[in-house]
Amino acid sequence: MTDRLLTRPFVLAWLANMVQGMAFTMFLHFPGFLKGLGAGEVEIGLIVGLTAVASIAVRPSVGRAMDQRGRRPVILFGNIVNVGVLALYLTVDHLGIWLYAVRIIHGFAEAILFTALFTYGADQVPASRRTEGIALFGISGMLPIALGGVLGDVVLARWDFDVFFVVVLGFGILSLLLSLPLPESSRLGAGGDRPQRFLASVVQEDLVPLWWVTLVFSLALTAYFTFLKTFVVDTGIGSVGLFFSAYAATAIGLRLFAAWLPDKIGPKRVLYPALGSMVLGFVVLAFASGSGAIAVAGILCGAGHGYAFPIVMGMVIARAADADRGSAMAIFTGLFDVGALLGGPAFGAIIRFGSYSSMFLAAAGWMLIGGFVYAYWDRSNPAPPTSTPRRRLGGTSMIPGESAVVLPETDP
User: Fold this and answer.
1) What's the rounded Cα separation, in Å, for the pair 223 and 231?
2) Which CATH code of 3.40.50.1110, 1.10.10.10, 2.40.50.90, 1.20.1250.20 fits the domain covering 8-177+202-384?
3) Which of 74, 181, 224, 340 suits a disulfide with 228, CB 3.0-4.6 Å?
4) What average pLDDT does the segment 309-328 reach?
5) pTM of the model
């Protein structure tokens, strides 16, 4: 039973993350709302990326709060803020300061929930099945990608954005209700270590290459998470639902039936092909001329995402001390906001002065070059076996394989 994944806390957190994910991923259609208000491509990128500014600002506080006060209070607070801000979208009817304020509050809420729920889920995963468990928990985030785009298509085909925001609000309320019975994580304070300063996790030598590859990955995601909607509207090629259904179905299939592969053969041996698959997906998008190409691109990008996210997250958890897990996860998830903040305006500018094809090719080139940089940078840090997680001994973080005694991890 020490390797059991489907515990009650894990399942409750999985369900809460799934429904809050529905509230989040339905915002794949938000650029269409902004376009209807008169926003151009660059402004859409700035407005969508604005939530990232708020998210980045709040991450250190979220990480410290989880390490010092616990995961549960942070999860509940994030849900309450999320419900409130989703209701505020019903009051937005023009471009202006109020829209920007709502986006900033939404950024706070998403930063809190994304970080706290994934940290809580990781706490419940036994070390011997770390990548597999994270991949399984990640399905709660992939299902909304498949369903959110399609549900958004259905709602907007029949009603307007007011109804759309009511549906989104309903998912936010359900996430709050599912989070209420969550017990505090047993991982909190495991090992008796005191948390380091947040900055210490930012500059920890063996974590820095992981921060880089996370930034590479997250910035590239902005190309289709922000601009696929306007690409479909402007070109008439495919649909948002088609791409993200193929994307999520592929990622979920791999996580259900082959999530064990990174733990068995080594995370990096799977990570590099996964990044390569995403590069190919961007190239297909760049030259897409019909729905078939959109579906193929979704499959390729989904395969890459399906493995890359849990692998990198698993290595972050393995290299960070238990007492600093909240801070490490705040940095990891916060880099997705940094990617959105940088990628939104940058890719929007490429579209404005070039084309969608040149934007997707730029994303492919960024991921290819960034992947090679990571491979060279992290070459001296082989991914440790997940069955022997890292511990901080005598105030120093040690990685299995170095000259140190590694204490076994107990079942969460």
Assistant:
1) 10
2) 1.20.1250.20
3) 224
4) 86
5) 0.74
